[in-house]
Amino acid sequence: MAGVLLMGCKTEKEPRRFLFLGHPYEWGTEDQVDPRLEAFGYEPYEAVWLGGDVCARTAKDPATMDYLDSVFNLERTHWALGNHDWDYGERENVLSRLPSPPYYTVWEDGFCLTVLNTNLFWPYPSTPPQENCADKMAQWQMVQNVADTISAATHWVILHHHALFSDLMVEPQGGDTLRTFNVNPTPFFTTCDSLSELTATWYPELVRVKQRGVEVVCIGGDFGMRAKQFEFQTPEGIWLLGSGINNTVSREYAPDYVTDFGPDHILELWYQEGRLEWAFVPLGGD
Fold first, then answer.
1. CB 130 within 8 Å of CB 161
2. For residue 126, what is the domain's CATH number?
3. Chain segment 159-198, per-residue pLDDT in tens
C-alpha cells in the first residue's frame, strides 16, 4: 500500500535560479568587484547574468579576467558588456576570455536568452559614425531573426547594459520620462544607418513577439547611481527591469551624479514550468 502511495505522489521540479548583477565594481579600484560579491554564495544559481561594468577598468589588465573567473566562474555566466568593460584598455583582454561572443542568443530549455552589446550603439543626436557597421548590422539581424522565429519559448529575456527604450518609461500619471539608468541616452542609434533609432526599429519587433504569446523581459545593468532597482511594464506588456549596486562609493566624496545611497539590491530570477518570476533582494552589508 505504501508503495502505491509513493508511486502516486508527484514530485514538483525545483525552479531554476539565476542571479543578475549590474554595475558591481568596487569604487576606488580598477580591477575589483564589490567585496560582498567576492564572499557571496553562488552555488544555488544555475548561472550568473552580468549586466556590465563588472570592474572599473576591466579591459586594462589581462589578470583581471583571471580574478573575475575566480569570483564568478565565467563559464557559467552570461555577460552583457558595459562601457567600463569595453573601453579603458585592450578589448581583446576581455573578449578572448568570454565564454561566448559579445552578442548572441541561446535556448535555455524553455526560454530564449539574448545578450546584447550596447557599446555598439551610438547614443548621440548626430549621424552615426561609419564604424563597426558589420557588427552593428549582425546584432540587429540577430534580433530580427529571433522575432521572426521564436515560437516554443515561453519568454524572451534580453540582457543589456545601457538603457533600452528609456523614452517609453514615463511616470504612471504621465509627464516626465523616468530617469533611472545611470545614463538614459535618446536618441539611440543601433546601426550605421541614421534611420536606426532604437525604439522606432527594435521595439516593434519585441511587441510582435509579445503578441504571439511570448513574454518579453529586458534586464539592464547600468544602474546604481540614480536608482538601485527598477521594474516597469509598457502598455504593450514588455517588461523593463534594471538592477545595480553602488554602495562602495564614498558618501563624503561621491560625485554629484550619484544620488541614491539606499541599500544595494541584487536581482534574483527563477524559472519553473513556464513561469519566470523575479525579486530584488538586499545584498546586505551597507
1. no
2. 3.60.21.10
3. 999 999 988 887 666 666 778 899 988 899 999 999 999 9
